[in-house]
Amino acid sequence: MYLDMWFYPNLTLEALNAGRAGTMVEHIGIEFTAIGERSLEATMPVDHRTKQPAGLLHGGASVALAETMGSIGAFLCVDPAKYSVVGLEINANHLRSVTGGYVRGVAKPLHIGSRTHVWEITIFSDNGALVCVSRITMAILEKNTDKTLTQSPATQP
Questions:
Q1: Residue extents of the structural domains in the chain
Q2: pLDDT tens for residues 9-26?
Q3: What would the 3-class secondary structure string for 24-51 be?
Q4: How confident is the model over 118-143, as a mean pLDDT?
Q5: Taking Cα atoms as reference points, which of 92, 84, 101, 8 lies closest to residue 46?
Q6: pLDDT tier at 144 (50, 70, 90 boundaries)?
Q7: Catalytic one among 26, 31, 37, 67?
Q8: How many CB atoms lie within 10 A of CB 137?
Q9: pLDDT score at 145
Q10: CB 136 within 8 A of CB 90
Q11: Is 31 labeled as catalytic in the residue annotation?
Q12: Regarding the domain with residue range 13-143, which homologous superfamily does it belong to in the CATH classification?
């Protein structure tokens, strides 16, 4: 049973992961693994695609995981026929290094408003150690539903 926050209450992991095809999300190996009542979970490998030259998980890869999870979370809470979601701000605190295996992200909303969402994403190593804490603010933009063409002010009589 899902809370009212999900616009797609019957969404499957297969459908969610199918949207990765041909994107950076697929390229770096992010895979959604759970849809909870108030959370999303995903994993990402720590390998040649996500490591920095020193052999550690790249901080940018952690941020890519966090932004993916927060963006998808916000998207799943709105009617896509009426709204678009775009990131306004993201921050991340990198707390521990990881050299291999997988990391697991857990995204939870801190605020679901009509114009903004704030999501917290915590990232853990294979052994459960906290690796990164991130927060993303998403703008919820109303789509222009007016299909008629209008003149620009410069072309009006």
A1: 13-143
A2: 788 999 999 999 999 999
A3: HHHHCCCEEEEECCCCEEEEEECCCCCE
A4: 97
A5: 101
A6: confident
A7: 67
A8: 17
A9: 61
A10: yes
A11: no
A12: Hotdog Thioesterase (3.10.129.10)
